Amino acid sequence: MNFKQYLVSALCALTLVAGFASCSNDDDDTSWKEGSKVDMPQYRAFVLTEGSYGGNNSHLFFVDPSADTTSVSDIYETQNGKKVGDTANDMIADDGDIYIVVNVSKYIARLNGSGVEQVRYADFSKLGEPRDVVADDGKLYVTCYGGYVARFDAKTLAFEDSVKVNANPEQIIVYNGKIYCVNSGYGKGHTMSIIDEDKFDKAESVETLTNPYGIQEANGHIYVSAYGSDYSNPVAIYNASTKTFKQIGNAGRVLAYGDNLYMANSKSTDWVNYTTTLSIYSATSGSTSAWTLANAPSAIGKSIVYMIERNPYDGSIYIGTTDYYSNGKVYHFDSTGKYKTMFSAGGINPNSMVFLK
Amino acid sequence: MHRLITVLCVVSLAINVSAQTDSIAGKTHSLAGVEVSAHGVSADVTAAVPTQTLQGTMMQQLGMVTLSDAVKHFAGTSVRDYGGIGGMKTVSVRNLGAHHTAVSYDGITVSDTQAGQIDIARFSLDNVSEVSMALGQSGDQMQSARHYASAGVLSVETERPHFTDKDYTLRARVRGGAFGLVSPSLRYWQRVDSTTSVSVDGSYMRADGAYPFTLVNGRERTKEKRNNSDIYSWQAEANLYHTFRDSSSMQTKAYYYYSERGLPGVVILYNNVSTERLWDENFFAQSIYDKRISKQWQLCARLKYNHSWNKYEDTNVKYDGGKQTDIDRQDEYYASATIGWKPVAHLSFSLAEDGAVNTLRNNIGESPNPVRFTSLTAVTARYHDARLLVDGNLVGTFITEHVSTGTKPDNRRRLSPSLSASYRLLADVPLFVRAMFKSTFRVPSFNDMYYLRIGNVGLRPEKALEYDAGMTWSGRLFRKLGVQLTLDGYYSAVHDKIVAFPTTYIWKMANFGRVHITGLDATLAMDIPVVRNISASLTASYTLQKAIDKTDKERESYNDQLPYTPENSGSATAMVNTPWVNIGYSLTACGERYSMGNNAAEYRMSPYAEHSVTASHEFVLRHCRLSLSASILNLTNKQYEIIQYYPMPGRNWQMSATATF
Q1: How far does A268 lie from chain B, in Å, by closest CA?
Q2: CA quadruple B475, B479, B482, B487: dihedral, nearest 10
Q3: What dotted CATH number matches B43-660?
Q4: What does pTM read for this prediction?
């Protein structure tokens, strides 16, 4: 494939700039781009889109975070000659690698830092479809819809062990030697499971919101997002000492960073037209205030927010929106919350971004 | 060939005669599809609404086995075919959506209030004498109010018993084909006396359905097989035909169907595990009573009870207990009466009243067990003289529902008018112009309103408007070449389209969408005399259609073509009849289209053409007639999909042997 077909010309210049500007020792290590069919700058980002169920239209697109330009076509397909598959649900970056979890296609894969697949694991018949992933200390922990958290070697993706949790576990985090996941129970669940990372033998179940799907942690604050019994999208903060949750607001998508939880709540009365409210919850003060984003396009307020990600290298915020049928949009704000630009996510339902340098 | 010419002559006469002796009903029956019915695809040139007909003999000769095989040949009609013998197949006329098309089986509509659309996959053509598709309603003024209430009607007429030298006929048939298809069937006709006859038939069908296909995944191409696509079914039907002393007649039917099948589902990259199973059971009993009360008055009454049951099961560790089982049971009680009145020559009226009670029960704890009471009233008027035919009707709908829990939807009242006309331009040439307007709507189905969490009881009906103007001609070229041509231009619009709409938390049914459809349908039928004892016929249909999303200017799909709607599509058939063998060839072709409302290059689907050839011959033996038929379907082994990631079978074969005693 011709590089020019896939990257805008600006990217070439940026590649050079990135080459000169690099100062890290890692820059000499080029293993991240081994097997790559296109050239790519050292500083890179990737956006994963779920697609629509049954459409085999999940996509991984390369993003140049310096210029907010994206590859013209799916970088996974360019690098590997095949498609991502159906309903890529989660993506993380760890130790220079990219991990994708493709729910309906039923596999997890480790890609190198340029999107070239290194290894995949696909035997989920007993565990159930993989849902979400977290990496820690050379291990991958994957929630599986049969009610398991499975542990894999992060490099070889060799399956090591699994722990039974409650039905239909969703998002997963590791914090302070413990693995936490929430269990949606196909709408009927209301628990969070806690597993000791070292022992990895059993799960403790803690009551949480009804139909939970999300869990995040920052600065020791653990937040759970749920659909709620009335689909009001409640968000709650966890009190580890009492093992209880306190509802702090309502949001469809959240981002935990520092002592704050950034929340986007997209609501509709007719299921057709949406209004999105942005707010910030402060875990230190316990108060909620408006999340003001300077010069934010008004379209965000009328869109469904599907993703909020933070670039750890420059503190930028990326808000992904969806209409569930056409390619999502990603709005880029700098670390001060000032709108920079918008680019296409390359596919339907953008759900994760990773940043590598 | 002679037969053809004779038929054409008779037809011309029939038109002239019927044009002069119009009556309320009956005669319009005889008009339908009359002109080229001798040799197949027939759009009635005299009808005020576009009507296309396929005769049983022609379908057999073309190797058509299922109803969907036949419907794919109608202009302006699309079949959503999910592939394979057990795969769902629904019919949409001019892209109004499958919910707007009624399917009529021997005069009474088939209903599925839960899904709102009819899966025609289970209808075989084994005993079918005629299949027709009418836009709006058929020309029969005595039809039920449900027929009048639909945007399009697909009618299936089964073969009535007919006897020659004996009082009975027994037919045994066995059909076999690729992918493990075996289907034996038996049919028995008995004449009880001069006024009464009965028919009984039964069939069994099984198939593995594991057909191969090529999966394209980026630059990779792999050979795969359809998985979990086996099916078996039993079907039985009994009919009683009786004519009373006062010449009134009654036809009573009992029908039973049972099947179990795997649902192979959409092809998922890297995951070919498919574990969904479906069991279906359907029983109905229906009766139609026809009476000519006087020269001016006529009555047609219908009764039907329908019971359907299905069980869906999926096995996956993600479910509680490793399995999800959904069981649904629907019942329908239906009564209908149409009274016709012809007070003066050329003018006739009818009043049709239908009442139906539909219930749904399932094993979901939160189900509201809905019960729907429907009243449909149709008032029609017809003017028909030697050259002009004008039909008008007005359908009034009243629907009320009862739910055991949750919100009860508002009662629904609505009037739907329709007007159509046909005019014979020249007295001695069957050249007609026609025009029609029809306003219909479809009521949200039980699934639309009550499906667990997804349903929305606040839904408004989905409205459809149809306009059509056309020209038809039937005649002869070069003295011997029988030709029939129809050309219709149309505009349709669907408002308040009911769609499953994704939301931040769950799919929800919503009224969302406005669609404008403009198009052109053309059909051609030709009978070509070759030499003595050898005749040939050709049919062709072509559809040009723009079906545009006009929902929201800010959406990317605004002005985009609807999913699975080719701008160009068509079909053709050719038949050659010789004393030694009859050859039938059929072609369906479909242009480029998109699998998503967002017409991005990624969702573009390639054009395809499917060719099939059938050879058949009938031997007359001492005690029976033996008919053998062999078909090669998808002759060019074209890999194609009608619905994306539901591959259709490649080249395959079917054979049948039929002995009639």
Answers
A1: 8
A2: -40
A3: 2.40.170.20
A4: 0.88
